[in-house]
What we know:
alpha+beta, five-stranded mixed sheet, 5 strands
Amino acid sequence: MTKTAPPATYRERGPMGAPNGFTLLPWLLMGMGAVSNLLQGQTPQPWIGGLGLLVFNSLYISVVFRSFAPGKREALSTRISLAALGAVTFALAFAYGDSWLFFFPLLGLATGAVVRGRRLGPVMLGISLVAGAVAWRHEGWGGVSAILYGTFLSGMVTAAILALSETVAELRETRQELARSAVEQERLRFSRDLHDLLGHTLSVIVVKSEAARRIAPRDMDAALAQIGDIESIGRQALVEIREAVTGYRESSLADELERARAALTAAGIEPAVHRSGPPLTPQTEALLGWVVRESVTNAIRHSGAAHCSIEVDGSAERVRLVITDDGGGVGSTAPGSGLTGLTERLAAAGGTLRGGPAPRRGFRVVAELPVDESTG
């Protein structure tokens, strides 16, 4: 009979997707040949085979799900379950052969999901040699290579793909943390610059104001000179503040969403805010923040809504912002100049902005922008 090795599977569920225990369950269909033998009465002592099949499936499901649970993959109970799975596999394949030999590649899948690092090679080699020996007993040399190769490959490929998936997940988490850290560092820089810039200036203004108040009753010309100095210092401070703000990144989209939530709540509108997707560039967050600010302001002032939802859904290529209220104010009129200006700004960045009546009731604003991975 012809036997092939099952490749390890990897199910991608969006940009933040990752494999889980359900990923390895479809391979249990490889045991359908053994089930068919049982149902057709081709298996001696079928009640023993049926019990063994039930135990094998139970152990397999337990092992693969525990291998994806944090902290359980290295647990002693998981290793004991894997060893028991190996014993049941050997007993069934040794006793019945034929389609029951396919349980060895399934054992390889479970082993690859649990065992990692340097131990994996020797363990998989040992399992494969045992599988080859059992196949030789039932099939002769013609069945050895397929079972031996399939068992070894299934375990090694499964372990490699799962290890790669975990590495990718860690890199994504690190990237998000670095993005958050960069924003925090920028805020800290600006707060320090603002403190250094205004601390001395405001102190001088206070001192000169007190001096002008004291000398005004007896020397108005001197008091006016002090007031002139205060005006000059104030103008210079404005110039310095503008220069400092030039290099400042705008607040993050997360902060803008929190402010929108607070503003809606204060206005008696129930907010629903949801955000998903990878980190965005500061420029993209700034543009979406302006859309959130303008749309929420319109909803508070004009809509008369009771609910307002804000959804940010990002992928590796584009990010989509949808703001919907259930009011009746803005939805009956054309978008204001604020949204018109934002439409032009988003178009310049390669995005789009649409505003109009929601499908059921109220007003909806939809903004879409491309994601620039090079600067994210």
